[in-house]
Automatic annotation (TrEMBL), chains A, B, C:
Organism, scientific name: Paenibacillus montaniterrae
Keyword terms: ATP-binding, Kinase, Magnesium, Metal-binding, Nucleotide-binding, Thiamine biosynthesis, Transferase
Protein name according to UniProt: Hydroxyethylthiazole kinase
Gene (name only): thiM
Enzyme class: transferase
Record: residues binding substrate: 48, 197
Entry's Gene Ontology molecular function annotations: ATP binding; hydroxyethylthiazole kinase activity; magnesium ion binding
Length: 260, 260, 260
């Protein structure tokens, strides 16, 4: 079976449903419910566990690990470090979502520590977070976030090379790179930014995608495309509360069927 | 008034609405919102409080206590033990939901400690969790989880006898026993497993049911039947996000009216 | 531009959308998701952060701070005190939501400490919580909570004077006072009490309202009116799960357009 051919024929979310990976999420309490439900909607299995005494054992049975610093605290920092290192030892893919890393020096310091002690497979962030991470390494620089901004792309490539990981910067357009290969994904719906946790859920879905066999870059690109498409399908619903419900419906739909 | 007659005429959820018990939940942060909303949907009153300094006082005003280990941590283990012991002293019913107990030794050890230090009125779990709990006591054994599996039933009866509590094992079919009496409940909708917290919410509703006067076994059996029925009503909705909304609608509907 | 004239022409929620304030919430994990989504629905920006090491820095970039004790614990008490004091130093408005303060002595003691160490701009609570707070200061007294109860109004005025803050007591009718000025708001939908976090979200929206330039009393009165109106709009939906969705839809609608 030619897997790369399958990727073209089936949606990436459908591949996740077929594999049904267990995704261990150490994430913030604001989005934990929508993250779990979003993973379930595409046929993946979420497990949330953040106690230091158990995270190493929990991650050992997972297909992927997500570290999300949205409500970082003294208790979960140690758990994230322990889980990430164990995932590295076992070859389990690890995704970092550096929520609001630019907002406080506490987050900046901890993200730098994570990046220095853990080998991440993917950094999934928005443009401001990318700039904050890059700024720490290369001093601050102006960031033009206009469509297809060359600055953003260059910074993403540099960060990908520096940390030897994939970088997915998402927003009104997405960009994914491993430092050499690159892809732009457009589309979606602006209201995704008006629903809490949509970026966080995407990071969790990326962790599921990285657990699949085959070309990781292509899986990520496919997942980002599917997520944009889900937003567009949900976008038929003009009201924000109903839009939230429709996102779950659309994710399920895309994971169940063929790529449109 | 013949209460057992009422049980037959009204749904168990309607009895909960009539009594409106306060249910103290020490539960995981992933499902706390849906648990609170589900209890409110059937007319019960939820209170979530997990700080050691206040749980004994909080449980004292409650009609039932739920201990759920979904996101167990060093801070909440002590709170669970203190709340459970206080509930025992005051004769307030206590329900254990041993989420993912088989996944880590940390959870296994803590569940064993809970079972040895607290008298639970009900263990509400799925088949894997039941096997993990039983396995600790009787070494591991093969578990056939096919429909109406004799193994599951026997293990549930043994656990019920060992811990002198009711045991409700739920899944595509449910089984409830006190070690002697037993009941099977079928029906429901497979998609309940694709929504996070549906088992956790059921455990909270069971805590509400145990606070009612009358035959506890019959109340539990009635609640499990109503929950299956709610899933079937919601099941008219083919999409998972909308299905989540419809579960709340169906729980409210069943608690408001007569048994169908 | 005459701002007070604008207040009459545009809804208070529309003013919030226009200003798009960042609201720092240290709130309970049960309602954090609905609080974030509710703030986003009216165009405000939520940030949840409760770690002592970062709350002072985080609140410095916020337009308003909410302290909500719903799942108070030893870790967050210090964070609340530090964030509140920093907000006071910087002139950032602070709202207290004393969830269930009457339920345990732990909550009562901590709320008294908050009130003695932090200058709150607003206390947003229900009648029982108001009585508990007042009871500590003036010993317990009977509280008549009938419509337009003089007792409630007098207690609210006394508390407003004692703590030099606005007080908004909400329920089937709302009352807001600064100790001298006062306003009653009626309307709404009784089912707001059957959805978890509706009072908590209102407190967060009030924090957003207090960040606006102009007359704070009028902003609060306007927000309470808009919230009642949102409940009435959602009230067209007879089922509780769907009602939850419609509240978000209605909040977005009111923030987008003219006052009806």
């Amino acid at each position: 079976m030619d897997f790369s051919k399958e990727v073209r024929e089936k949606s990436s979310l459908a591949h996740i449903r077929q594999a049904s990976p267990l995704v261990h999420c150490i994430t913030n309490y604001v989005v934990s419910n929508v993250t779990a439900n979003g993973l379930l909607a595409i046929g993946a299995s979420p497990v949330m566990a953040d106690e230091l005494e158990e995270v190493q054992e929990m991650v050992s049975i997972a297909g992927g690990l997500l570290l999300n610093i949205g409500t970082l605290n003294a208790r979960t920092t140690d758990s994230m470090l322990a889980a990430g290192k164990q995932a590295n030892r076992l070859g389990i893919p690890v995704v970092l979502d550096p929520v609001g890393v630019g907002a406080t020096s506490y987050r900046q310091r901890f993200v730098q520590r994570l990046l220095s002690e853990i080998n991440f497979d993917l950094l999934r962030c928005n443009r401001g977070e990318l700039a904050a991470i890059a700024g720490v390494a290369w001093q601050s620089r102006g960031v033009d976030s206009g469509e297809g901004s060359q600055d953003i792309k260059e910074i993403a490539k540099q960060v990908a090379k520096q940390y030897r990981c994939l970088v997915a910067v998402t927003g009104d357009w997405d960009y994914v790179t491993d430092g050499e290969r690159e892809a732009m994904i457009t589309g979606g719906d602006i209201r995704m930014t008006a629903v809490t946790g949509m970026g966080c859920l995407l990071s969790a879905i990326c962790a599921a995608a990285l657990s699949l066999p085959g070309d990781r870059f292509k899986h990520l690109q496919g997942v980002l495309q599917d997520y944009k498409l889900a937003a567009e399908i949900a976008g038929a619903q003009p009201k924000i509360g109903s839009f939230q419900v429709e996102i779950m419906n659309a994710l399920e739909q895309l994971s169940a069927g063929e790529r449109l």
